[in-house]
Write a structure and sequence with these properties.
The protein is built from 18 helices and no strands. With 427 residues, it is mainly α. The C terminus is likely disordered. This is MFSD9 protein.
Length: 427
């Protein structure tokens, strides 16, 4: 699972940095390019919850394969886009179905015990981040060749097809994911356990799930079940967790929103240095993912405390950046921020699954992804307004939002620490 996640972001990060250049070479204006980019974000916003919930219903295997193959189709169409219209069409399947990493996280949540989940998620994020670091370098090299963008897009599509083959070859079993925790002592002989097309059969009567027998025969039942599950999430007591995720996401996005421009205005630093600093932070984020195991053991697997402390550290470091008097203070804040944000991002996902329960892990991760997408839409607007007042405006606003998130966590401390499942309305 780690290998496809690495290849996924490796392939995507080869293509994404080159897309604006390509669409402008096709004759599109800045406005048209912006509209197409916004439409992709909107499709991601609305589809992530539905696709995540669908993966709970039909099983991880079929949903993951469908998302991988349809994403491959999107990147193949991108490699054939010789007009702006074809470019826009190629973004539709990717915008709707590029949720491969979310479903992979849900699959990992099915496979491992609650105690080991932060460690495994941290390693998963580290593997993905390595791909994101290496991809732009390879993409930049390939684009120097003749028809480089088209070649890069076809390579990305081929990588997704390879991932589809790897997922198909995984030793799927028919065991329930819940049985996995009873087998932790026999790690050498444990069979690969996942939510497959029949693993929810025993729970279908109580949870309203659809078994594999109706995978292709009852699409309307699947749609009804998806809507019922989403309603259950919307009516549950998980609002505070998703609000914390939204506030912290916007705070971090505000930190990075005008990073290069602010460094230039405040310290006279060239964009090249800012690029090196961001790559340095990404590399440290990979290291932070690998250190989650010792950190969770140090905190005795108390995810709430880790999240609270990492969020407090993130807030402090953004404040340090906003008030920095020299570039070295910026380097210092970026160094530790890479650790705190990576740890916090992993812990908020673990807390969602712990409080919400593993039975709807795909739905929970999908809703969380939608919340993050809302942050990506809101953050540029807030950044633009705050930047009218000062180059330090966006990070200063981010400090305020992070403080609100910390206060919400403190106000709901009892619920976070109890680790009791929040019952959804449809249960």
């Amino acid at each position: 699972i780690f290998l496809p996640s690495f290849q996924d972001l490796f392939g995507v990060s080869m293509v994404v940095p080159l897309m604006n250049l390509h669409i402008k070479s096709l004759g599109a204006s800045h406005t048209v390019a912006g509209i197409i980019g916004s439409l992709y974000g909107i499709m991601q916003l609305f589809s992530s919850t539905f696709v995540g919930c669908w993966s709970d219903i039909v099983g991880r295997r079929y949903s993951l394969l469908a998302c991988i193959l349809l994403s491959a189709l999107g990147y193949f169409l991108l490699g054939t886009s010789t007009t702006v219209f074809l470019f826009a069409i190629s973004r539709v399947p990717v915008g709707i179905f590029k949720h491969t990493l979310s479903i992979s996280k849900a699959l990992l949540s099915d496979l491992v015990s609650e105690r080991d989940r932060p460690l495994v998620m941290g390693r998963f994020n580290a593997a993905s981040s390595v791909g994101f670091i290496l991809g732009p370098v390879v993409g930049g090299y390939l684009t120097e060749l003749e028809d480089g963008f088209y070649l890069t897009s076809f390579i990305c599509a081929s990588i997704f097809l390879l991932n589809g083959g790897l997922v198909w070859m995984l030793p799927w079993s028919e065991e329930n994911a819940g049985n996995r925790e009873h087998q932790q002592g026999n790690k050498g002989t444990d069979r690969f356990s996942a939510k497959t097309n029949r693993d929810l059969h025993s729970k279908s009567a109580t949870n309203g799930t659809v078994t594999s027998d109706s995978l292709f025969q009852s699409p309307w039942v699947q749609v009804a079940t998806v809507l019922k599950r989403i309603k259950g999430i919307a009516c549950s007591d998980l609002w505070d967790i998703f609000l914390v995720r939204l506030l912290m996401s916007v705070a971090i996005l505000l930190y990075y929103s005008n990073f290069s421009l602010a460094l230039d205005e405040r310290f006279g630093v060239k964009p090249l240095f800012a690029g090196y600093l961001m790559s340095y932070s990404s590399a440290l984020g990979v290291l932070a993912g690998c250190l989650l195991g010792p950190i969770t053991r140090l905190y005795q697997h108390n995810t709430y405390r880790i999240l609270l402390h990492s969020s407090t550290l993130t807030c402090t470091l953004i404040l340090l950046y906003a008030s920095a008097l020299s570039i070295w203070m910026v380097v210092l804040s970026s160094t530790f921020l890479a650790f705190s944000t990576t740890i916090g991002r992993t812990c908020i996902i673990d807390l969602e699954l712990t409080i919400g329960g593993n039975e709807a892990s795909g739905t929970l991760l999908g809703v969380g992804q939608s919340v993050t997408s809302v942050g990506r839409i809101v953050a540029p607007l807030l950044s633009g307004i705050a930047q009218e007042f000062s180059p330090c405006g966006p990070p200063s606003l981010g400090v305020g939002l992070a403080l609100v998130a910390i206060l919400i966590m403190n106000a709901n401390k009892q619920k976070y620490c109890s680790h009791g499942n929040v019952k959804l309305k449809n249960q």
